[in-house]
């Protein structure tokens, strides 16, 4: 009964490819996020969605396009992958637009070669 | 805007010793405060949080943190650590006033507990 699940867990791909990471939460939350953790383990928010509406886009390149088909899902599509996109991507969710407790997925380790 | 500084990138300690992981934050608005733990190759788990009320908050596995408004700190402490506490610990803040709920994280502190 995973609360926030991401697929795939590992993703190895070549530069220039397009890939997607899927995220689903079964907590009934209305806000979902994507975070990026770099090689130094620094975590930074990329996007926030509330009730399928984009709330935060933290100056992420246009190659990254989140899509929220419903409140329980937030997918991340990445076009024209670059070496610098290699990182661990975490999906998270919380209830309400005031974040009093966020639940994180297990992460997707993306390696671009 | 907010920022979070974790003053130690690595903290090695021996088992059963006390530990303190330091966290300072900067913010022009009121914030919620959090400590998350990340075990190797896993996601982040909420360890404890300060939303309001008592400035001393505790987790179920013996950690505690104290919110100090005057010093803008939220240090994490445990009186006696176990090998299983070895992990990366992240301090984070979020704006109480509704900014999309984003968490601002510190750089992380790697706690390494040795036998």
Key phrases:
heterodimer, A: 113 residues, mainly beta, 7-stranded mixed sheet, 4-stranded antiparallel sheet, 56% strand, B: 115 residues
The SSE string of chain A, one letter per element, is: EEEEEEEEEEE
Instruction: Let me know the average pLDDT of chain A.
Output: 93
User: Which value, in Å, is the CA radius of gyration of chain A?
Assistant: 13 Å
Shape field of chain B: globular
Low-confidence stretches of chain A: none
Q: Largest interface, and how many residues on either side? A: A-B, 30 and 25 residues
Instruction: Assign a percent range to the helix content of chain B.
Output: under 10%
Beta fraction of chain A: over 45%
What is the percentage of strand-forming residues of chain B?
over 45%
Biggest sheet character of chain A: 7 strands, mixed
Q: Structural class of the helix and strand makeup of chain A? A: mainly beta
Structural class of chain B: mainly beta
Evaluate the radius of gyration of chain B: 14 Å
Overall mean pLDDT of chain B stands at: 93
Poorly predicted ranges of chain B: none
Give the SSE order of chain B as H and E letters: EEEEEEEEEEEE
Helicity level of chain A: under 10%
The quaternary state of the protein chains shown equals: heterodimer
Describe the structure.
The complex is a heterodimer of chains A (113) and B (115). With 113 residues, chain A is mainly beta. Helices cover 0% and strands 56% of the residues of chain A. Chain A has no helices and 11 strands. In chain A, strands 2, 4, 5, 6, 9, 10 and 11 form a 7-stranded mixed beta sheet that branches. A 4-stranded antiparallel beta sheet of chain A has the order 1-3-8-7, with no helix packed on it. The radius of gyration of chain A is 13 Å and the shape is globular. Chain A starts with a strand and ends with a strand. The relative contact order of chain A is 0.34. By secondary structure, chain B is mainly beta. Chain B has no helices and 12 strands. In chain B, strands 2, 5, 6, 10, 11 and 12 form a 6-stranded mixed beta sheet that branches. Chain B has a 4-stranded antiparallel beta sheet with strand order 3-9-8-7, with no helix packed on it. In chain B, a hairpin with a 5-residue loop joins strand 5 (31-38) and strand 6. The radius of gyration of chain B is 14 Å and the shape is globular. The model of chain B has no long low-confidence stretch (mean pLDDT 93). The A-B interface holds A 4, 31, 33, 35, 40-45, 48, 50, 55-56, 58, 90, 92, 94, 96-107 and B 32, 36, 38, 42-46, 49, 51, 88, 90, 94, 96-105, 107-108.
